[in-house]
Design brief:
The protein is an alpha/beta fold and 203 residues long. The protein has a single domain, classed as 3-Layer(aba) Sandwich (Rossmann fold), CATH 3.40.50.10490. The chain has a 5-stranded parallel sheet with strand order 2-1-3-4-5. 41% of the residues are buried. The chain is globular. Helix content is 56%, strand content 11%.
Length: 203
């Protein structure tokens, strides 16, 4: 058998090179996001996250790392993934339309000063945009992980990390790295504020 002249897997890996390199320019921004989110959660506030499809999985991944732990032991932090609330999600979508499925939950759970992380590769998902709009009305900070700018989500949010990739899959894979950098920054802030070692956090 002859080998394939072109390997789709290698092509996919090659497509990640430039977007991952570009993410380095956003490392400082993600550190600032982590400090802001850490301050909010340590102060009794909450981080909320939302997305559709693969972005929904990443939103849930983010909140699970905050409620549980990413790398270091630390206090549990309040983080809620709105797309993971399946009964509320489907009930609201059934009664009010899918566009309101996240926004209504945000109005129920968020308080002024909280943080919303909105993930959308297109930056144009109506239900994510509605959540960002509701957050702005409630004085909730809005941070976007999205694809190429400009797009409507970037315009609505306070700050954004925009990934230019050739496919949705590539953008989502770089978003996952950004999620991990955000978690690292939260952990670093919590450790700096609390002054707790891993051993002390376990007691």
């Amino acid at each position: 058998m002859t080998r394939f002249a072109h390997s789709p897997g290698r092509g996919h890996l090659a497509a990640l090179t430039a977007p991952l390199a570009a993410l380095e320019s956003d490392a400082g921004r993600l550190e600032r996001w982590g400090r802001r989110a850490g301050r909010v959660m340590l102060g009794g506030g909450r981080l909320l996250a939302v997305g559709n499809g693969g972005s929904a999985a990443q939103a849930q991944h983010l909140t699970s790392e905050l409620v549980g732990r990413f790398q270091d032991e630390r206090p549990a932090l309040s983080a809620v993934c709105l797309n993971a609330e399946t009964s509320a999600l489907t009930a609201i979508a059934n009664d009010y339309g899918f566009e309101e499925a996240f926004a209504r939950q945000l109005r129920a759970h968020a308080r002024p000063g909280d943080v919303l992380v909105a993930l959308s590769t297109s930056g144009g998902s109506p239900n994510v945009l509605a959540a960002a709009q509701a957050a702005a009305e409630m004085e909730v900070s809005t941070l976007a992980l999205t694809g190429c700018a400009p797009n409507p989500l970037v315009e609505l949010c306070d700050d954004a990390v925009c990934v230019e990739g050739p496919t949705t899959a590539t953008v989502q894979e770089v978003h996952l790295v950004a999620v991990h950098l955000l978690c690292l920054a939260v952990d670093a802030h919590v450790a700096a504020v609390t002054g707790r070692t891993a051993e002390q956090a376990l007691r």
